[in-house]
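Design a sequence for this backbone.
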């Protein structure tokens, strides 16, 4: 992608950068094929301030068994990215993010947070929404999907009742963390009780390659919209086999982090669709590059997420707003249905099962600074330096 020329004309310097490591309480346990989340989620928030007083926020939402650790992302932002940012002009956006991509390996979440904060900052200065700095808006709302991952299935059934009342009719069942019969039972009950429910399946790498074909073929008989990442990320051979033997769309998630992985996935024919997450790709621009590569091969995309607050949801929303190929909806539900309290001043906007794309400057929402301090386990304000 070519950076919007309006950004490269912003002569203001960045004069301050603050970083928070938050632990935000959640309302239930969630089991996934590669691990469990309970009690809280941990995210890193970055705030940039320009010399005119404009501010921009970004979020890194890591998960240790998937993308990385909060401690690593905090250090990437505070120690390694800070010298690239302080005193730099916003016009140097491409140089800042390019250097950040090289100065620290991995930590794609921190790179996404930095890019988001720069876009948010530029959007406020230019009085434009972030999507307008990324491209042409192709949609104003996005279908919401909510994942079901509570080992207590009765609780998930109660959640589905609430979702139905709210107009949400897409769920993604997390499978592979218990036994196959448990997975079949949940799908069968949901199909029986809600025949019109749009059901997707996500294994999060939870199947062994020796059992994958049998388990996936039985799940496939329920005709889910897609089946996501049944086996470990590097097992392209089994993914390719499953793609040829499955009627439902086979989605790649952990197998595809960025554009480079997408090209390999296409070459080895491992998927019919792809989950795009800014936390995997390292930002909105690389996420859009993945979407474009997939589109050129008629591979549709889904707007995935990590365990996020409304800030990261907003970044993903702006990205999807300009990508025709991210057409399978999004899972930006944590701020509304999983966190006990989000950090946005106003609720992340979902209307009748649809995420609404903001038209206000920047990300389009204000952040509650008091909540950042309330939930901080570490920050650049309180950290003791040696």
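Sequence:
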């Amino acid at each position: 992608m070519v950076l919007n020329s309006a950004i490269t004309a912003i002569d203001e310097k960045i004069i301050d950068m603050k970083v928070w490591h938050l632990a935000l309480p959640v309302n239930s346990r969630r089991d996934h094929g590669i691990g469990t989340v309970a009690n809280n989620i941990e995210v890193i928030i970055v705030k940039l301030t320009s010399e005119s007083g404009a501010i921009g926020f970004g979020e890194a939402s890591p998960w240790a068994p998937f993308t990385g650790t909060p401690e690593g992302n905090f250090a990437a932002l505070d120690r390694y990215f800070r010298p690239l940012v302080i005193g730099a002009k916003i016009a140097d956006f491409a140089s800042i993010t390019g250097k950040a991509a090289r100065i620290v390996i991995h930590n794609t979440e921190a790179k996404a947070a930095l890019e988001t904060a720069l876009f948010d900052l530029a959007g406020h200065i230019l009085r434009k929404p972030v999507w307008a700095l990324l491209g042409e808006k192709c949609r104003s709302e996005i279908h919401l999907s909510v994942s079901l991952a509570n080992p207590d299935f009765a609780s998930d059934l109660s959640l589905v009742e609430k979702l139905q009342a709210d107009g949400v009719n897409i769920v993604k069942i997390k499978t592979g963390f218990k036994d196959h019969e448990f997975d079949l039972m949940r799908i069968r009950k949901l199909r029986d009780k809600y025949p019109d429910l749009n059901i997707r399946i996500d294994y999060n790498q939870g199947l062994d390659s020796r059992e994958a074909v049998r388990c996936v073929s039985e799940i496939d008989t329920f005709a889910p919209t897609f089946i996501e990442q049944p086996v470990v990320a590097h097992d392209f051979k089994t993914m390719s086999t499953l793609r040829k033997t499955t009627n439902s769309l086979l989605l790649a998630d952990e197998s595809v982090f960025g554009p480079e992985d997408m090209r390999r996935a296409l070459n080895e024919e491992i998927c019919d669709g792809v989950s795009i997450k800014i936390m995997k790709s390292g930002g909105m621009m690389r996420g859009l590059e993945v979407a474009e590569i997939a589109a050129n091969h008629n591979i549709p995309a889904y707007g995935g997420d990590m365990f996020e607050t409304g800030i990261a949801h907003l970044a993903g929303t702006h990205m999807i707003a300009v990508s025709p190929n991210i057409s399978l909806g999004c899972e930006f539900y944590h701020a509304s249905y999983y966190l006990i309290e989000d950090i946005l001043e106003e609720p992340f906007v979902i209307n009748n099962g649809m995420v609404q794309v903001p038209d206000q400057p920047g990300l389009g929402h204000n952040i509650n600074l008091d909540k950042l301090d309330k939930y901080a386990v570490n920050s650049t304000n309180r950290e003791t330096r040696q």
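The longest strand covers residues 14-25.
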